[in-house]
Specification:
The complex is a heterodimer of chains A (571) and B (281). Chain A is α/β, with parallel strands linked by helices and 571 residues long. Chain A folds into 3 domains: 2-10 and 21-268, Rossmann fold (3-Layer(aba) Sandwich); 281-380 and 460-532, 3-Layer(aba) Sandwich (Rossmann fold), CATH 3.40.50.300; 391-459, no CATH class. Chain A is 39% helix and 23% strand. Chain A has a 6-stranded mixed β-sheet with strand order 6-7-8-3-9-10, sandwiched between helices. Chain A has a 6-stranded mixed β-sheet with strand order 16-17-18-13-19-20, sandwiched between helices. Chain A has a 4-stranded antiparallel β-sheet with strand order 2-1-4-5, with helices on one face. Chain A is globular, with a radius of gyration of 26 Å. By secondary structure, chain B is an all-alpha fold. Chain B has a single domain (76-280), classed as Orthogonal Bundle (MetI-like fold), CATH 1.10.3720. Chain B contains 10 helices and no strands. In chain B, α3 (78-114) packs parallel to α6, α4 packs across α6 and α7 (179-186) crosses α8 (191-227). Classes of the chains: A alpha/beta (571), B mainly alpha (281). Chain A binds chain B through residues 28, 33-36, 75-82, 89, 91-92, 349, 351, 375, 378-379, 382-383, 385, 387, 390-395, 404-405, 408-409, 454, 458, and chain B through 1-5, 8-10, 12-16, 178-180, 182-184, 186-190, 193, 198, 201-202.
Chain lengths: 571, 281
């Protein structure tokens, strides 16, 4: 053990040659929760200064592996196998010997930056705590190091950041702070657990750029956990694809990504929207044909403005927004959080009243209606919520949930309603055995299908979809999108689809409006927007789509673009 | 392939299935509560002795096979008196809890759902009620209504209204903001439909566990009031009253121990069930 101690990661790692063994080596790792085996015989190696991505959907065991490596498994779980970190058997070390490694030699970037910092203490105080972990020269020296590191991770005004509370910073800034805290002690290994899944696309790209840059500048090994194959292929030197705790495939991005051998990797590859823009081309053509035939617009929104009063200041959430949606097609509203997408659809549904403008659906005015007459409109206009975990009443059974709108609008006899419920569920690909289940007994994808069935059972002409796939895995997302598009092709439904995921929009929409700060900055057909964007903001959004090709050589965007990106960093 | 964590957690192997099984303490609690309820419904099935007329020759006997809890100063079987006293003790606790749940729940539901000035008025009123110690409040109410076990129950119930109103209000506010409530609105649901079918079922879960807890507490409050003489006079045999009479005969301690033990066992059982409900809900 003695000679290896000389290599412990807190010391500068200058003299290490390529002959040294990998920094992290995992062999035959299995993890048990009680008697359940959740990870089976996983092995991989991560070299110094290299990066490796663990890819899998929720429940695939990727986070459990990382917890096992960091020795942060919850009570009741235990790991067997070998984890060699820097030549030391990490699983066999006593907690007292292992603790100095955590934080110092192994840095960790959590998934949701909003939950990872103490909300009642200033960032600076929390950073000092992290700095106290290693032997910096005195308080002033630590402070200087913190400011330097914050500058290094791209925070413009480190002093201001130190004096802020977590809620005063945006999600992207918080994630930078956390990355800064993780790299502060100059660890040898940085573990990032889905570091961008809670962030907007443009911010996601910048955070990933930052991680890649730090990896190179500071010679840190990066262990990246993600569900997005495209991100992984773009950022990592090697990939490990996991399913149900078993390695399906591993190797370099070139082999795993371009020529996946295992069936699961192929399925995952097919499910990533960015890689398969024409996946649903056949289903979508129906809508394009309708557009070409010049059908009348089903939805007309013209010059709608909505202002909210926040702390006495007027905030224009939706500013002079207009768009038309032809019947039987999909219109996508894209933009980052805070761009006014959600307010726009709430106005469309009549849940909020605009200050000015006109909205009509199938020729009927929405604005200025009473509750009672809005109800008649809702029979033809339905909403699918973003999060199926909150949009279904947990005390109701599936049958009752889907039947609720029929009951409320007094449609048909009891038997006809039951028949329509069955039909709606069959339409979204759910079997009758689910009728008597409650939402808690369904998976996320099944819940969202129930929500779609519920919206569809009234046979509305328009369905508004508020990021319907953002809470589910990619393969489930692909299923749901397939369901939506076949419903549209068969029944001629009109969709308004809200999303921040441009790759997904490219797969399923016919027309697109790009929203930025309450305004529509650009709109047109999918082909116009994606092949021929005119606004720098749209370009920056498109650039942010992970393409799966390695990010080498695309580090510096053109100056104009850079400016527009900086503008979008909403505080 | 060295096994890591040699000392670790093998014993927790069964932790997942255990969540589905009912702990034995809870099973025991259910048995106790079931027995007490059976006593109150059909006391005659559990004892052949007369709770009112004693045999003077058998007075102040220690517990034995004939007289499980012994006999009192008038030669009455104490077990029979406890069993026959259960009806009024448990029924009054049930009345008290029902008053609390219905009145408090209704006020909390209205305040939480309607909001605005209704909420402000009710919430302040409840704050005032909460500021008065509930036992003192019960004493005041029962004094105003007259000394009688039913009045004791009403007083105990009224003093618990504020607690129920408060919990119900916060649960309703939480449920009202859920996405499924707005979804039901879009699906054509009226306010009443949403209130009764969505908000109430979701809010009532924690109110239910509180009600079970409050049931145990009410038994104690009612026993205390009976002990102080606010309930029915002898020969009624409320548990609190039995303890109160027994305290005059300190040489024969089973007169206090027996009813006190029954009261404690019942209250502990109810509390254990409530805690279990809260964890499983």
């Amino acid at each position: 053990m003695a000679p290896q101690d000389g290599l412990t990661a807190i010391l500068p790692r200058a003299g290490i040659t390529e002959l040294t063994p990998p920094l992290l080596r995992v062999d035959g790792l299995s993890v048990f929760y009680g008697s359940n085996k959740v990870v089976t015989d996983v092995g991989f190696a991560l070299g110094r200064g290299k990066s490796l991505a663990l890819i899998g959907e929720s429940g695939s065991g990727k986070s459990t592996i990382v917890r096992a490596v960091l020795r942060l498994l919850p009570d009741g779980a235990y790991a067997t196998g070998r984890v060699l970190f820097d030549g030391q058997e990490a699983l066999a070390l006593s907690e007292r010997r292992f603790r100095p490694l955590r934080g110092r030699a192994i840095g960790f970037v959590p998934q949701d930056p909003g939950n990872a910092l103490n909300p009642v203490r200033k960032i600076g105080a929390q950073a000092m705590e992290a700095a106290a972990l290693f032997d910096a020269p005195g308080k002033a020296g630590r402070k200087a190091l913190i400011l330097e590191t914050f500058a290094q991770v791209g925070l413009d005004n480190p002093q201001r950041v130190c004096d802020s509370y977590p809620h005063q910073l945006s999600g992207g800034m918080l994630q930078r702070v956390l990355i800064g805290l993780a790299v502060l002690p100059r660890p040898a290994l940085l573990v990032a657990d889905e570091p961008t899944s809670a962030l907007d696309v443009t911010i996601q790209k910048r955070i990933l750029d930052l991680l890649s840059r730090l990896q190179q500048e500071l010679d840190i090994s990066l262990l990246l956990i993600t569900h997005d194959l495209a991100i992984a292929a773009e950022r990592a030197d090697s990939l490990v694809v996991l399913k149900d705790g078993v390695v399906q495939e591993s190797g370099s991005p070139a082999t795993v990504f371009s020529a996946p051998a295992s069936q699961y990797a192929r399925k995952l590859h097919a499910a990533v929207p960015a890689l398969n823009p024409d996946h649903y081309a056949a289903l979508r053509t129906v809508g394009f044909n309708r557009m070409d035939a010049g059908v009348a617009p089903k939805i007309e929104v013209s010059a709608v403005t909505k202002t909210f009063k926040v702390d006495g200041k007027a905030l224009t959430a939706v500013d002079n927004v207009s768009f038309n949606v032809p019947a039987g097609t999909t219109h996508a509203l894209v933009g980052e959080s805070g761009s006014g997408k959600t307010t726009t659809i709430r106005l469309l549904l009549g849940l909020e009243q605009p200050d000015s403008g006109r909205i009509s659906i199938a020729g009927e005015q929405i604005i200025g209606r009473s509750q009672g007459s809005l109800r008649a409109v809702w029979r033809r206009l339905q909403l699918v919520y973003q999060n199926p975990f909150t949009s279904l009443d947990p005390t109701w059974k599936v049958e009752h949930l889907v039947r609720e709108p029929l009951d409320r609008f007094y449609i048909g006899t009891r038997r006809e309603r039951a028949e329509r419920v069955r039909e709606a569920l069959a339409n979204v690909g759910l079997g009758e055995h689910l009728l008597s289940r409650k939402p808690a007994a369904l998976s996320g994808g099944q819940r969202q299908r129930v929500a779609i069935a519920r919206a569809r059972v009234l046979k509305p002409e328009v369905i508004v979809l508020d990021e319907p796939t953002s809470a589910v895995d990619v393969s489930v997302q692909a299923d749901i999108v397939g369901v939506l598009l076949s419903l549209q092709a068969d029944l001629g439904l009109t969709y308004v689809f809200v999303s921040h995921d441009l790759a997904l929009v490219r797969q399923l929409a016919h027309t697109v409006s790009v929203m930025h700060r309450g305004r529509i900055v650009e709109h047109g057909t999918v082909a116009d927007i994606f092949d021929n964007p005119r606004q720098p903001y749209t370009v920056s959004l498109l650039e942010s789509i992970p393409s799966g090709t390695t990010a080498v050589g695309m580090t510096v965007p053109p100056a104009a673009l850079k400016r527009s990106i900086t503008m979008t960093g909403l505080a | 392939m060295t096994a890591a964590f040699p000392s670790s957690v093998q014993h927790l192997t069964a932790s997942r299935p255990a969540a589905l099984r009912i702990p034995s303490a809870v099973v025991l609690s259910f048995v106790v509560v079931a027995l007490v309820i059976a006593w109150s419904l059909a006391p005659g099935l559990f004892t052949s002795y007369d709770p009112v007329n004693g045999v003077p020759a058998h007075k102040l006997l220690a517990p034995s096979a004939q007289h499980w809890f012994g006999t009192d100063q008038l030669g009455r079987d104490l077990y029979a008196r406890v069993v026959y006293g259960t009806a009024s003790s448990v029924t009054s606790a049930l009345i008290a809890v029902s008053i609390g749940v219905v009145a408090g729940g209704f006020i909390g539901l209205l305040a939480g759902f309607l909001g605005g000035w209704v909420d402000i008025v009710f919430a302040r009123l409840m704050d005032v009620l909460l500021a008065i110690p509930s036992f003192l409040l019960a004493v005041i109410i029962v004094t105003a209504l007259g000394f009688d076990t039913t009045n004791v129950a009403i007083a105990t119930g009224l003093s618990a209204v504020a607690v129920f109103a408060r919990v119900m209000r916060s649960e309703v506010i939480k449920a009202r903001q859920a996405a499924f409530v707005e979804a039901s609105f879009l699906l054509g649901g009226s306010r009443w439909h949403i209130l009764l079918r969505h908000v109430l079922p979701n809010a009532s879960r924690s109110v239910l566990t509180l009600a079970v807890l409050q049931f145990g507490l009410s038994i104690l409050v009612i026993a205390s009031l009976a002990f102080l003489g606010y309930g029915d006079p002898p020969p009624a045999s409320d548990w609190g009253l039995l303890i109160s009479i027994g305290k005059n005969y300190l040489k024969w301690p089973w007169l206090v121990y027996a009813p006190a033990f029954v009261t404690i066992a019942t209250v502990l059982s109810v509390n254990r069930i409530s805690r279990w409900l809260r964890k499983t809900a």
